[in-house]
Write a structure and sequence with these properties.
binds adenosine monophosphate, binds glycine, 27% strand, Dna Ligase, domain 1, 13 helices, single chain, 6-stranded antiparallel beta sheet, 5-stranded parallel beta sheet, alpha+beta
């Protein structure tokens, strides 16, 4: 089995790492990959927006299975393109229609409404209905949640306390603040609670529930400061106990997959349920049609069965829970970022200590240079450890991180701290 992973971040490095341990793997490729994936796979040059280049890479390297990492090519229809051009190649990633669960907030909300899946109350507006939008806001309590309908690189959600400010921002979105992604805006009820991420691999009929995780979105310790792509992750999440997860399964996961089947949506891939626990009751904040980053860097280390076998079974529409196992261990992943991220930061700093043993160092934003591997992004590395419990995994991950250095690096000190007391 020759496998191609599409993408270039820490998520793709972690997926590739997991696949690289499979006993049925022949050759592993990443496109474009990064210096981390280069140590376990062959990186192929190419762009995720150039589907014909990807097709050629698949032909040239006799690829049997493609795993699509990020959402953008899925929403742009790479799965449909490959199904048409190379029908014998298996693809992990939903069809363009399935990818709308992430690509259009309005589609996702209407889907949840049709299938009675718990989510915040909402309404959707366009520039022409801005007066109705203002009237709808009057019926809600502060804070106001505004969501650009389309993909906006994780920046399309605004949560605003003052109604006047929310109205101004809504005008700004309709005036193009998020480009075409903001032609429609979903306005919804604010839900208060703790968030977590649940993941399934589904063939559109059956599913495997992957380990759940929690990510840390804010830049600063104690969840303060600006939102980021995620500054760390931990798995398992103790409030996701049996009782809570059985509500998630019965009220959210099963109805979502039944809805996909009932609507004849071709879906073979991951669903990432962004959930919020409101007083013990789960609600869907959002669907993503890919794995989370940096959640994947923790999640992959806890899957103990052969992940590639599950991926193939999924692509062939014959998923079975029997062979699937998750370890009782815990994982913690800490992002080392460039100082200044998520605002202005500098890149190109040489990274020391990458070969330190004691965990996994997944590459998020790095580049090879004549001197060695250098930083090349806001989020640079996901330093990850897996151990018998969260406290040990956390200690191991920070120990490992202590041996890695680049100029101006920044990380949070408190990843997984909030889950430690639950462990006692
Ligand atoms: P999204 O891109 O939909 O995941 O939204 C980004 C973040 O905004 C989420 O992770 C939540 O922290 C927050 N958020 C989104 N929708 C709501 C809501 N209805 N109530 C409270 N927080 C929300
Ligand atoms: N960590 C959240 C995401 O991948 O969207």
């Amino acid at each position: 089995m020759n496998v191609l992973v599409l993408g270039a971040g820490g998520r793709e490095h972690a997926i590739a790492w997991k696949i690289s341990n499979s006993r049925i793997l022949n050759k592993l490729f990443c496109l474009p990959g990064n210096p981390g994936t280069a140590s376990i796979a062959t990186n192929l040059a190419g762009s995720l927006s150039d589907f014909s280049q990807i097709k050629q890479a698949i032909i040239d390297n006799q690829i049997n299975l493609v795993v699509v990492g990020p959402e953008v090519p899925l929403v742009a229809g790479i799965t449909d393109y490959l199904a048409y051009e190379l029908p014998e190649v298996k693809v992990i990633g939903p069809s363009k229609q399935g990818a709308m669960l992430e690509g259009s907030k309005e589609f996702a909300k209407a889907f949840m409404l049709r299938h009675y899946i718990p989510t915040a109350q909402y309404a959707c507006f366009t520039k022409d209905s801005i007066e109705e939008a203002f009237a709808f806001m009057q019926t809600l309590k502060s804070p106001y949640v505004l969501k650009a309908d389309g993909l906006a690189a994780g920046k399309g959600v605004l949560i605003i306390d003052s109604i006047d400010e929310a109205k101004e921002q809504l005008k700004g979105i309709f005036d193009g603040q998020f480009g075409a992604a903001g032609d429609k805006v979903v306005i919804e009820q604010f839900l208060s609670g703790i968030e977590m991420s649940a993941f399934v691999l589904t063939d559109g009929k059956d599913y495997l529930l992957l380990p759940e995780a929690k990510d840390y979105k804010r830049i600063g310790n104690g969840d303060t400061g600006l939102n980021t792509g995620g500054m760390g992750s931990v798995s398992p999440v103790y409030f996701a106990n049996e009782e809570f997860m059985s509500k998630v399964t019965e009220r959210i996961i099963k109805p979502t997959i039944a809805g996909i089947a009932a609507e004849n949506i071709d879906y073979k891939g991951f669903i990432f349920f962004g959930l919020i626990n409101c007083g013990g009751e789960p609600y869907v904040i959002e669907y993503n049609v890919r794995m989370g980053d940096p959640e994947t860097e923790s999640v992959m280390t806890r899957i103990s069965s052969d992940f590639l076998e599950h991926l193939i079974a999924c692509a062939e529409g014959r998923l079975s829970k029997e062979e699937f196992t998750i370890s009782d261990n815990a994982a913690v992943s800490i992002i080392m970022a460039s100082g200044g991220y998520p605002e202005h930061y500098e890149s190109g700093f040489l990274i020391d200590g990458l070969n330190t043993k004691g965990g996994m160092v997944f590459h998020c934003g790095t580049k090879a240079s004549p001197d060695g591997i250098v930083s090349a992004g806001g989020r640079v590395l996901a330093v990850t450890a897996n151990a018998k419990d969260i406290a040990t995994a956390r200690e191991d991950a920070y120990d490992l991180l202590g041996n890695i250095y680049f100029n101006d690096c920044y990380y949070r000190d408190d990843i997984a701290c909030d889950l430690l007391q639950d462990e006692d």
